[in-house]
Design goal:
Radius of gyration of chain A: 24 Å
Largest sheet of chain A: 9 strands, mixed
Distance between the termini of chain A: 57 Å
Order of helices and strands of chain B: HHHHHHHHHHHH
Number of domains of chain B: 1
Structural class of chain A: alpha/beta
Largest sheet of chain B: none
Number of strands of chain A: 9
Number of helices of chain B: 12
Strand content of chain B: under 5%
CATH superfamily of chain B: MetI-like
CATH topology of chain B: MetI-like fold
Shape of chain B: globular
Number of strands of chain B: 0
Shape of chain A: globular
Oligomer: heterodimer
Largest interface: A-B, 51 and 50 residues
CATH architecture of chain B: Orthogonal Bundle
Helix content of chain B: over 70%
Chain lengths: 410, 287
């Protein structure tokens, strides 16, 4: 009997010890370890440098950077498990809105840190959370811009000028095509890269309040996006042979290698292009969507915001890191390395590459990304990608409407 | 007898506990949540069968089912044909057959994701370059970027990787057949083809059954290959059900809805496996 008991106890302890194997690691040698979660592969090196600096200033804090692929899905999975990272560096989009509504993020409203941010960007992220939860659950940090990037050498070779209207833009694409060169290098194997043109077009054609109206049932893609779909289909004609087969990383290398004149991307692609070809001369301009130059706005959004988990055990240390990131020197370093723009007052991007969009930032002809306000489960980028292959406009716009409503009604 | 029982209990209880905690319990939780409107966090209410009704109305789920079954059936047939051929080859008396067996098993050891990324490179750069060099128009574009052909790329990668495991199972089956049978058949004047259909194939029937069932089940749950190769694109042309459940459940905040989808899929896989077993067991030889 006794033997049996011990054997049973042995078996149980064995099971328990196996279970204990997956407990989290705590602080080592008196240091506090914080996890910094980032959704950008582009900024890994920059963050590594900043973390080194921070750790030198704060020897008792260690920061572990985690930048997985499919980051948003990973983050949602961890939310489900109640295992949020201490600090998050994520985009100001629908996912942030959801995290904000779920009440798992620290509220920064009224803090000194939030006051250093340009108010328009605070409004932008508050709109994402919606009226249900009052508060600012993140600090807008870096902002981005959708732009047409062009290869200056080729641009001059073809005798082009920066277009101010849609017709002029198409004329320059036509000119390049007629000369036997590739006008635009598309990278549509990665569905999200199709959303860049889509957002520029949608923001300027369908207006900024489209999503609110769509949720209220007052408008639809059928009604507002007809022209957008046509213009998308037009643009794809000026691509290359393998529009659908090239991914983003390969596209950056190809454009850096002079494979095309234009490249529809955002400022975030510029460091990647320069990595592949450091001597390249680049220029940017906002895509001229309409034929009235005064109507054409630049699409810019919150590319990176810093959020702190509400339930973290090391709030004080996490706040220290947020303060470090928000100070002007760090912010300047970040935007210089990442070729981004800062959401913090008084920190400016002075790189000559951005000559073509500087004016938009100065006089405020800026509008936000339409797709940041789409319901997250809709998978709009794959629908757009499908449309660019099949070109069945009616069916596609209907599907955009029905998918939106379907996700809303679940 | 008593002593034996207690030994069994000591061995099975921890295993059962571990299995229950990490497998059965989450599965039961999933079934429970499929009747609610839980988003993956926050509050929830019971909604009855609403999620299940929505799955049947969901076009995207329908497309995912079609793609997954098309993929799984083609891949299962290919894998079993190829691995049976390879196994027969490796079972014959050739030089280095032990080394060759090890080499053929290598793809199975590699991580699917890594293999996917390598093939991604092959499809994106290597094959188009060959196409350009030889002027073969169909090869000059990345097939993963074509919605009608992308699934073939995934089949190629999945089959390449899965053949090794099934080959091992078939080899185990071939070893059980005694040489005497073949010798007797040779004396009776049977050719290679006759030997295969009359002796080899009937005698490895149990292995054929298990291979068919396992590979169909694995291919119905295809996930990693797609993430590494196409991410469900172009459009939604290669979105498998597992991918849809994962994406919609975590990215789209449809945790409960996709749980319902998963429960339905679980039932579908069970039904298919049972039908397969019943059908294939009938043709196994009674030893």
């Amino acid at each position: 009997m006794f033997k049996k008991m011990t054997a049973g106890v042995m078996a149980l302890t064995l099971g328990a010890s196996l279970l204990a194997g997956c407990s989290s690691d705590g602080a080592d040698d008196g240091k506090v370890t914080l996890e910094l979660f980032s959704n950008k592969s582009e900024s890994i090196e920059t963050y590594k440098g900043l973390i080194k600096e921070f750790e030198a200033e704060n020897p008792d804090i260690k920061i572990k950077l985690d930048a997985p692929p499919e980051a948003e899905t990973v983050l949602k999975t961890r939310l489900t498990k109640n295992d949020l990272p201490d600090i998050m560096s994520i985009a100001g989009n629908a996912t942030y809105g959801e995290l904000g509504r779920a009440g798992v993020l620290e509220d920064f409203s009224g803090t000194d840190l939030a006051k250093t941010v340009q108010p328009s960007y605070i409004d932008m992220i508050n709109r994402l959370v919606g009226p249900e939860s009052e508060g600012t659950f993140g600090l807008p940090y870096a902002t981005n811009a959708n732009a047409v990037i062009y290869n200056k050498a080729k641009f001059e070779e073809h005798g082009l000028e920066v277009p101010a209207t849609w017709d002029e833009f198409i004329a320059s694409l036509e000119k390049v095509k007629a000369a036997g060169d590739t006008p635009i290098y598309f990278t549509l194997k990665d569905a999200w890269t199709g959303m860049i043109a889509w957002n520029s077009l949608g923001a300027n054609v369908a207006g900024e309040d489209f999503s609110e109206k769509k949720n209220a049932g007052e408008t639809s893609f059928m009604e507002k996006y007809d022209e957008v779909a046509d213009k998308m289909a037009t643009l794809v004609q000026y691509g290359h042979k393998g529009n659908m087969g090239v991914a983003y990383g390969d596209g950056n290398n190809a454009f850096a290698g002079g494979k095309s004149v234009f490249y529809l991307q955002g400022n975030w692609a510029i460091p990647e292009i320069l990595k592949a070809n450091p001597d390249m001369e680049l220029g940017v301009f906002p895509m001229p969507v309409t034929n009235d130059p005064a109507e054409n706005k630049l699409v810019s959004g919150v590319d990176v915001l810093l959020a702190v988990s509400e339930s973290t055990e090391h709030k004080e240390e996490a706040m220290k890191f947020a303060e470090f990131m928000m100070n002007k020197e760090t912010a300047q370093k970040y935007i210089d390395e990442q070729k981004a723009f800062s959401a913090i007052e008084g920190v400016y991007q002075e790189d000559p590459v951005f000559e073509g969009i500087k004016a938009n930032f100065e006089n405020g002809t800026i509008t936000s990304f339409p797709d940041h306000y789409y319901p997250a489960g809709m998978g709009a980028e794959n629908l757009v990608q499908e449309f660019l292959i099949k070109k069945d406009k009616e069916k596609f716009l209907k599907k955009m409407d029905s998918e939106w409503e379907k996700v809303q009604n679940r | 007898m008593k002593k034996k029982n207690s030994v069994f209990l000591i061995i099975t209880i921890p295993a059962f506990l571990l299995f229950f905690i990490f497998h059965s319990f989450p599965a039961l939780q999933g079934i429970f949540y499929s009747f609610t409107d839980w988003k993956g966090y926050g509050d929830w209410n019971f909604v009855g069968l609403k999620n299940y009704l929505n799955v049947f109305k969901d076009e995207r789920a329908g497309d995912a089912y079609l793609f997954t079954f098309k993929f799984a059936i083609v891949a299962t047939i290919l894998v079993n044909i190829i691995s049976l051929l390879v196994a027969i080859g490796l079972n014959s008396k050739i030089k280095f057959h032990k080394t060759l067996r090890a080499i053929y098993f290598l793809p199975y050891i590699l991580s699917i994701l890594i293999v996917g990324f390598i093939f991604n490179f092959i499809f994106a750069h290597f094959l188009p370059q060959i196409g350009d060099a030889f002027g073969w128009e169909f090869l000059t574009r990345n097939i993963l970027g074509n919605p009608d052909l992308a699934w073939i790329g995934i089949v190629i990668v999945a089959v390449w990787q899965a053949v090794s495991f099934n080959t091992i199972l078939y080899l185990a089956g071939l070893v059980t057949i005694s040489e005497d049978l073949y010798e007797a058949a040779s004396i009776d004047g049977a050719g290679v083809w006759t030997k295969f259909w009359k002796i080899t194939f009937p005698l490895i029937a149990p292995f054929f059954t298990i291979n068919m069932v396992l590979s169909l089940k694995n291919f119905l749950m295809v996930f990693d290959q797609i993430v590494a190769l196409t991410g469900g694109g172009p459009g939604k042309s290669t979105e498998s059900i597992s991918l849809l459940i994962y994406r919609g459940g975590f990215e789209g905040g449809e945790f409960a809805y996709q749980s319902a989808n998963a429960v339905i899929y679980f039932i579908v896989i069970i039904v298919f496996s049972v039908i397969q077993l019943k059908f294939l067991n009938k043709r196994e030889v009674e030893n």
